[in-house]
Design brief:
This protein is of the alpha/beta class. The protein is 41% helix and 14% strand. It is built from 7 helices and 7 strands. The longest helix is centred in the middle third of the chain and has 27 residues, at 115-141.
């Protein structure tokens, strides 16, 4: 899977939403999906970052993307439902959803963890993906082969001390991924759901979590794209309910 060679037209005419599309892995995935033919819906908090991704995609001659500014920390249920209606009006369906947006919070013992930061991390990392998935499921069901990717973490599969709300939120993501994989495994079998652990990657979040680490020792987001393309494209149509690692162990 890590060596997957994606066909140039892998995602031609597909409608794919990417959260946290303004930077890091989300930005890279959005550009990779667009380069393989997808119309990408760019979701994120910072409009200027989304506009930068939009411009890069458009200038490269790929399908024109869409921008959806959405702050997961404070977005209400109605905003997710309105987004679903907008997508239905413009595209009628959704073929892919990459849940990538997340925040780190603080690394500290539970007994010292700030409750406000805990709530914020859980809201962005766990509750928002639930609300977005809930709103998008009817649109995903309209696709002939939809893929949902939940971004996990090593500390969401085996907790480590001092990772606090981030670890717990990623455990929640693993549970949500498994739950939806079973709930959407029906006779139509047209929506698959998997969790993906990118591993140590050269991103700003990784740098904040490991400030003493040499980032050059970690792969760039671009290096992980074969797995992201494989899971979003037609060659993974039979794969669902799995915990996948973007980097070989």
């Amino acid at each position: 899977m890590q060596d997957y060679q994606a066909p140039a037209d892998l995602l031609k005419d597909r409608i794919i939403m990417v959260t946290g599309a303004g930077s890091g892995i989300g930005r890279t995935a959005a550009k990779a999906y667009a380069a393989h033919g997808a119309t990408v819906i760019l979701v994120g908090r910072t409009v200027s970052k989304l506009e930068s991704v939009y411009d890069e995609i458009e200038s490269a001659g790929h399908p024109k993307p869409a921008i959806v500014p959405l702050n997961f920390e404070g977005a209400a249920v109605k905003e997710y439902e309105e987004l679903a209606m907008t997508i239905e009006d413009n595209f009628n369906r959704l073929d892919g959803l990459l849940h990538n947006a997340a925040i780190l919070g603080t690394r500290s013992p539970v007994e010292l963890y700030d409750p406000e930061i805990w709530s914020k991390v859980m809201q962005v990392n766990a509750t928002a993906p639930f609300l977005l998935s809930r709103a998008m499921i009817p649109l995903l069901r309209k696709s002939d082969a939809a893929s949902v990717i939940f971004t996990s973490s090593g500390v969401g599969r085996k907790a480590k001390a001092y990772w606090g709300a981030y670890a717990v939120s990623k455990f929640a993501i693993e549970g949500m991924s498994q739950l939806l994989a079973e709930e959407l495994d029906d006779d139509r079998n047209n929506v698959r759901v998997n969790s993906l652990n990118p591993g140590a990657t050269r991103t700003n979040m990784r740098a904040r979590a490991y400030p003493a680490e040499n980032p050059q020792h970690n792969p760039k987001p671009e290096d992980l794209m074969p797995v992201y393309l494989y899971l979003m494209g037609r060659d993974s149509r039979e794969l669902s309910g799995q915990q996948i690692d973007a980097q070989p162990k």
